[in-house]
Amino acid sequence: MFELPSGAEIQSIISILKSGLGFFIPEIYLSILFMGLIILDLALKGRNKSGILGWATLIGLGGSFYFIAQQHAMQAGEHFFGMYVLDEYAIFFKYFFVASGMFAVVATLADRKFDAEVKSIGEYYALVVAMVIGMVMMAAASDLLMIFLAMELVSLSAYILSGYFKRDARSSEAALKYLVYGAVSSGLMLYGFSLIYGMTAETNILKISMELADHGYDPLVMILATLLIMAGFGYKIGAFPFHFWSPDVYEGAPTPITAYLSVASKAAGFALLLRFFYIAVPHGVSPYEDIIGIDWLTLLVIMSVASMIYGNVVAIWQKNVKRLLAYSSIAHAGYLLLGVIVMDEIGTQAVLFYLLSYFLMNYAAFYVVVLISNRTGSETLDDYRGLGSKMPLAGAALTVFLISLVGLPPTVGFIGKLMIFSALLSKGALYIWLALIGVLTSVISLYYYMLIPLNMFLRESLEPNEKSLNPGFLAQLMMAVLMILTIWFGLFFEPLSEFARYSSAMFGLSLY
User: Fold this and answer.
1) Selected residue with higher pLDDT from 15 and 283
2) Same domain as 320, residue 253
3) pLDDT of residue 409
4) Distance from C-alpha of 126 to C-alpha of 148, rounded to nearest angstrom
C-alpha cells in the first residue's frame, strides 16, 4: 500500500534538490528569460514592439553563455536523483542550442514576411527560448522520464512555431503534419521505454545498462524496445524512414523555424541518440558484436545508407529551395549516423565536429534564402534566375555555403565529411563500403546544390527588371562574415576539432 513520505524523507528530498540547483543555473536563467519575454510582450505597445522583443531575446540568450561557461569548472556527475547529468558532452550542446536560438532570432529579425503575416509576435520569441530549454535538457537527460519530458517540451513548441503563419495554408498544413507524426513517434518511443522499464525496473540509463548486463534480457523484447525507441529518435533526427514530416514542414514553416528545426532539432536528436545507445544499450566484448542475436548497429547502418541515398536522390527533382534543403537534411542525418556507427571517441568527435560545420553552413544558407525571399517573394528555383547580377554578394555567399554542404574544399563542410569518413576507415576494411557510399552520394548532392548558383549566375531572369535587389548593409555584412567563417574554418579547423574532442567525454561511458 502506498504511504506518504515521512518528514525526514521529505527533508532529504529537498536537500538533494537544493544540492543540484548549482548545476542547473543555465536552465534556470533560460526559464526566467522565457517568463520575462512573456511579461515584456504584455507590457510593450507600439510599432517597435517586435524589434525590441527580438533584441531582448538575442541579448538574453547571449547572457546564458556566461552561466554555461561556469560549468566547465564543475565536476561531471549525476544530479536530481540521477535524472540529469553534467559533463563536457552536455555543455557542448548547451552552447550549440543557445547559439542556434540566437541564429533563429537573427533570421526572424531579417525576415519581412513576419511583418505581413504576424500581428503579435511576443509568444514567438518565448517559444524559441522554450525550445532551447527543452533541447538543453535533452542533451543532459540521463533518465527515461526526463528524456521524454524534454522531447515533448521541444516538440510542443515546434508544433506551434511551424504553424505560426496562421493565414498561410502551407504553414497550417506543416503544423498539422508535424503534430500527427510527432504524436505517433512519441507514443512509439514511450512504449519502447515502458518495455525497457519492464525488463529492468529502472529509468536511469546507467542503471538500465548495469541491470541488462548483470541479469540478462529477453532477446525478442529487447529487439522490439530498440526498434520502438529508434522510431522516436529517428523522427527527431529526420532520418529515413522516419523523415516523412520533413519536406512538408520545412516548406510550410517560417524559414527561420525551418533552419532552426533542420539544425538544432536534429542535433538534439543526435545528442540523445549517442548518449542512450552508447550507455543504456548493452554491448558485447566488442561493440560490434550482436547484443540480442541481431546486431543493432545493422539497424543504424541501414538507416544511414537509406537516408544518404534517398535524401540525395529525391532532392534532384525539387523545385522549391526550402524543400530541396529539407531532403538534403535527410541525407546529412545519414552522414551523421556514419559517425555514430563507429562507436568510439573518434566517431563521437567526428559527429560533434560535423554538427558544428552543419550549424554554420546550413544556418548561413537559410539566412540567404530569407534575404532573397524578402526581395523576390518566392522560394522556387525558377525565381532565382538572374539573381547573381541583382544580388551579387548573396549569390556568392550562397554558392560558398552550398559548396560546403556538398563537402568540397576549402570549406568547413569538407573537413566535417573528411572526419566522418576517416573515423570509418580507422575501423578497417569492413567500413570502407560505407565511406564509399558517403562519397558517391555526396557527388549526387553536387548536382542539385549547384542548380541554385546555375540559375543565379548562368540563366537569365524571367523578369525584365534589372535593378539591384541588394539587401541592407547589416545583412550584407552578416553574409560576408558567415562566408569568411565557412572558408576560415575549412582552412584552420583545429579550434573546432579540439573543442569537439574535448566535448566527446560522456559521464558513465565505458565504451571507449
Assistant:
1) 15
2) no
3) 87
4) 21
